[in-house]
Structure formats: C-alpha cells, structure tokens
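(Fold this chain)
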Amino acid sequence: MVHLTLFEKLWNAHVVADLGEGAALLYIDRIFLHERTGSIALKGLVEKKRVIRHPESVFCTIDHIVDTLPGRTDDTLVEGGKAFIQTTRASARAAGITFYDIGDARQGIVHVISPEQAIVLPGLTLVCPDSHTCTQGAFGALAWGVGSTEVEHAMSTNTLRVKKPKTMGVSFNGTLMAGVTAKDMILHLIAAYTAAGASGYAVEFYGDAVADLTMEARMTLCNMAVEFGAFTGIIAPDDKVIDYIKGRPYAPKGENWQRALEYWQNLKSDKKALFDKKITIEASAIKPMITWGTNPGQAIAIDGQVPFPAQIRDDHQRAAAEKALAYMDIAPGTYLTELTIGGAFIGSCTNSRLPDLRKAGKILKGRKVAKGVRAICVPGSSQIKRQAEAEGLDKIFIEAGFEWRESGCSMCFYAGGESFGFEERVVTSTNRNFESRQGPRTRSHLASPETVAVSAIMGRIASLSDLNEEVGNGTL
C-alpha cells in the first residue's frame, strides 16, 4: 500500500496528464484575479481571441492599486492606476466573471475575501497572479501564485503545466507561550532555516501548536510559506475549517455539503506517509519575533541582539547581513528595542483580519500613539471593516491616533502610490521587508499586529512585556 502526504493526494486528484520529467498538467478549480495583473490577463485573452472556459470559476477584486483613503474613487496616487482599475472593471464585466468592485460589500484583499466567501474549499486547486496565494492552503487546498500568462492559460483551459515540488513536513510541537502568535511561528522558522529553506518544496504545517491556531492564524502561517521559499503551504482540514466554511456564500449546500464532508475527512497525510524533508520546532521555545534586515529570514526574538556578520560562516549570508545592516542603519549587537520608529502599519493579507484588529485594539484602548509616529490600520476586507466598526474597534484605533482606512493592500508594498518617509523606520504586520518595499529606502521591521501596536504607543520597537513594565513603573 502506498502512503501519501496531503499534498500528494491533492496533486494526484488533479492530474490531467503526466507530462514527464516531473511535470504534470493539473486541473485548476478556481482562479482569482486583481486589478494589478488581472487586467493584463483579461486583455490578453481578448487579444488572442480566447474565451474563459468556465467563467463561474473565475473571480476578480480591486485591492492592489486602489487607494485606501476614505471616500476613494477610481483615481489613485499610482501613475496609470485609474486605467488599470477601469480596464479591469470593463474586462471583468465583459467576461462575465464574478467581480468585487470598489464599493461592493464583499470587496477586499484577494486572500482575505476568498476564504470569507468560501471560494477556497478543502481539496480544490486555486491560482492567482499573486505570490501569497499560498495563504489559502490553510483550508487544505492546493493554492499557489502564478504569472499573468499562466493565469490566461488557466482561464481558457482550466489547466496548468506544473513541475511537481518535493514535500516537506514542518511540525510545531507543544504549546506556544502567552503572547506568541502565528506570525512569530513563521518568522522563527524562516530565521532558523533561511528564506530559501523550503525552495523546491510544498510545505505541510502540522503539530499541536498548529491545531490550536484559529483559522485566521493558520492563514498567517501559510501566507508566509512563500517567504520560506516554498511552492505553497498547506494545513490539513479539521473541524475548525468546517465550522469556518459552513454557511458562507460558496460553501456546498444540502446533499452536496454532506458529500463534501465525507471527502474532506480523508484530506490528511497518511500516518506512514514519508516527507522528502522534515523539520520539528518546539513551540514553547518561540518568542515574539521581529526582523532586523531586508528579508524575512533576517529575524530575531524581540529581546535579542542583532547578529555580528563576522560570526556568520556562510559567505553569502554574511555578505547579505552586512548589506542589510547598512541599509537598515543598525550596528551589529544592537538591541532592536533601542530603536525609535516613525511609522506603524497594521494590514495586508498576512495580518488584517478581525482577530488581528481585536488584539491590537485591546492594547491600544485608552492609550495614545507616540508623538512623531504615523500609524495606519487597513482592514483586510470591507466585511472585516464593517464588523470592526460594529464592535467599536475603529473608534479605539482613531482615538489612539491611528488612521482608519478602507480595505486594500495599501502600503504593504508601496501600493496606491503612498509610502512611508525616506529612510523612515517602520514596524509593520506585512510579509516582506525588502529594500524600499514600503517607500523610498524605508526600513521595515516585520512583526505581529500586537508588536506593531505596542511599538506605536512606545515610539520605539517594543514588546508587550516592555509596555507592561512601563505601565507598572507609572511611566505610561
């Protein structure tokens, strides 16, 4: 008997043809577009005189280029952005696909609204021209990012040629300490094994600490699998997945629901399945994390010291560390908690869901953002924004000194033409800290929303324990 991993089961279920040399033609169940690349793909189909094979399987949202400022319109700060938005709108409507426009109650960041609508389901394949499509692997789906040419092919044929990756199992054993989040888990993993540690692999996350995570936290974990170099990240579906999906717009109904449940129960790795590589992490050893460099692997525990490049044995990593420290204007051996900040950002497809906003709001309530810090909160979807406002979270953020925005990608990647200041130091809940990612030579430190909220209050990089200490001392 052949024992298979979850990834192998999903792969085998979607193989249309074996193309040899480790590649296969896979059937694609769902396709998601956004205005940054979706307009190009839709226009390309028209120019090539191709049609969408199953328009009901294709979805599109406005999230990447659109402004998130209140009262937004098609006009954006991005040069040519208005044309992208309007072209996407016209093309999506002409193609007859489901379209979430500005002002639509369902609009939001693609990897946030797909789960909200249950467009992603256990056992499906889903592609999008966005590298963080792996977020949706949290539902036991095979989801990955593709290019605009690939998505054209997927729309016209519902298939894609894919080279099969190896399999990796990452187990988080035990229980997380209080105050440690899924963001800290994935940063800990990448810091330990580098940003290329999973290159060529599909990663399955499992273990007690993963099972204990909420669905929103699992999405955070899978979201940054691509920052680990992985083809995708995936978690086997369980009762939490079923409870999350049930009753949502695209969830199966009636008899189809019962049939789906029967199928989903088998979507897990066999006990004797062998991964090509396995990593085991002790969850209790993970601390709140933050990046010090210019890739997600350059991270440390927030109370730790920045490394000395001279002590790094690998020549490439040592050179990268030296370059990153120069860009970030940080001396080796520095404690990051000594660094003042000019910006704080809560948002993105990594950490913009309702539980993220609730946790940050709990810290911010009754407190004020430090003088000189520009703080921004961007909910991941219009639905999350409404839910947060119904709970009064918007008032907490605004009274604390945060800007409260409309849904979208916003300054996760300099989107909408906005940016933080030149060489400004920013603590951010996003997924990439590359050079100039959030503005011209902006220095971005990745962290959890809780760490962002605390740092905004303190005016420096800080953890919850730092805040509690200062409150106890009466200085805050």
Observations:
- The domain at 289-473 is CATH 3.30.499.10 (Aconitase; domain 3).
- The first strand starts at residue 15 and ends at 20.
